[in-house]
Design brief:
The protein is an alpha+beta fold. It has eleven helices and ten strands.
Length: about 400
């Protein structure tokens, strides 16, 4: 019975000690930045160990080694809180003065100790001011970085407003598109603008360069394209007006490559203007051949005089058109090899029986697997159009 009583009393005392320990605030020794970035015991051990080593050397050597205390006090000023650092000054002076083998007049000893305290305090103050200024600068930089990231995220959200949110409903055409930015903001742009129940306009553009300047020019291009969508449908005149608008807001050193295509599902034709953009791939379902929709105009915003040509070709059942930006073809692996047009054409041939969305995803996945750990270094845009006509048209011989 007594053992049980003693055990209950002991457990009650342990619980009370734990509660008392939680109520008593712990004395913080390290500065907040140091305590958050590593083991809390290591700086304290270094400082106390250095003080002990200097104190021992100062005691056994006949000459005064008080100046050596600057080393542990400097470490303390870097790692420890201000109040603790100044307390260590007193500790170091007392260690230097305690049981000293040197015989000095008491007045001179007091003067020497006061001078030492002032010198040590000055050194600690200078070091701590320097550390505080560095930490304040780091906090300012971090705050500015956070604000910049917030602004970039807002810019990315605005950019996404220019991209299509749904798939167009054009009978006989299956369309899927995607854009993957390499950074928070992108210099790529794509859109599909329905003209009628059987005709759609495809836009794929890429601004030269990366980062915020390219993203701003991309947004200007998207805004101009959407404004021009309500005007007449002459593609050459549209490209000319777009060139004037982009040249007026560009710095003269940046340009935009653009591929503008108009697909008529009733006539089963595609008309296009390629302004220096990567050639779209046209896969013929009957032969399995892949042809390129080559460039016929210089890039937007590069030249004041721009001879342009409108190209066209017929479409047949099962044909596939793949629009893309150079983020796909110029994607590199660890050996510096590019994914290239041949590999892209092979993926398109292999996936000719897939749906437009599945083929789009297969192209992106194949390029990503080719890059491996390197990843995409540029914005990636893929847009796939598959011709699902009823099969009544005359096939090419």
């Amino acid at each position: 019975m007594s053992d049980l009583l003693h055990g209950a009393v002991r457990n009650s005392m342990i619980v009370r000690l734990r509660v008392l320990r939680e109520k008593i605030p712990s004395l913080p020794l390290l500065r907040k930045e140091v305590a958050l970035n590593g083991p809390t015991w290591l700086p304290l051990v270094l400082v106390l160990g250095a003080i002990a080593a200097v104190a021992y050397a100062d005691h056994v050597v006949s000459n005064s080694l008080v100046y050596l205390y600057i080393l542990p006090l400097g470490l303390g000023a870097i790692f420890l809180r201000r109040s603790i650092s100044y307390c260590l000054i007193v500790v170091c002076v007392l260690l230097h003065d305690y049981d000293s083998p040197r015989k000095i007049h008491p007045g001179l000893r007091i003067l020497d100790n006061l001078t030492t305290v002032l010198c040590f305090a000055f050194v600690v103050y200078i070091i701590q001011r320097y550390i505080e200024q560095r930490e304040a600068l780091a906090r300012t930089v971090q705050q500015q970085r956070d604000r910049l990231l917030q602004d970039l995220e807002l810019a990315a959200q605005v950019q996404r407003l220019f991209l299509p949110t749904g798939k167009p409903a054009i009978a006989g055409l299956e369309i899927a598109g995607m854009m993957q930015p390499a950074r928070r903001v992108s210099g790529d742009y794509y859109d599909y603008i329905p003209i009628s129940t059987h005709t759609i306009e495809i836009v794929v553009a890429d601004v030269a360069g990366k980062g915020v300047p390219a993203a701003l020019l991309m947004s200007a291009t998207a805004a101009v394209m959407q404004l021009e969508a309500n005007r007449d449908r002459n593609m050459l005149e549209l490209v000319g007006r777009l060139d004037k608008e982009i040249s007026s807001v560009s710095d003269g050193e940046r340009f935009v490559t653009l591929l503008l295509a108009e697909i008529d599902a009733r006539k089963r034709t595609v008309r296009y203007v390629n302004c220096g953009h990567n050639p779209a791939l046209l896969l013929r379902a009957t032969t399995g051949t892949v042809t390129c929709m080559e460039s016929s105009c210089p890039p937007i915003g590069m030249f004041s005089e721009r001879p342009c040509e409108l190209a066209s070709t017929d479409l047949y059942v099962g044909d596939v058109i793949v629009f893309y930006t150079d983020g796909i073809t110029e994607a590199q692996n660890q050996l510096g090899e590019e994914f290239g047009l041949e590999r892209l054409s092979a993926v398109v041939r292999r996936g000719s029986s897939m749906s437009a969305e599945d083929l789009m995803n297969d192209i992106f996945r194949s390029a990503g697997n080719f890059c491996g750990d390197v990843g995409f270094q540029d914005d990636v845009t893929i847009l796939v159009v598959k011709c699902d006509f009823d099969g009544s048209s005359t096939l090419p011989s």
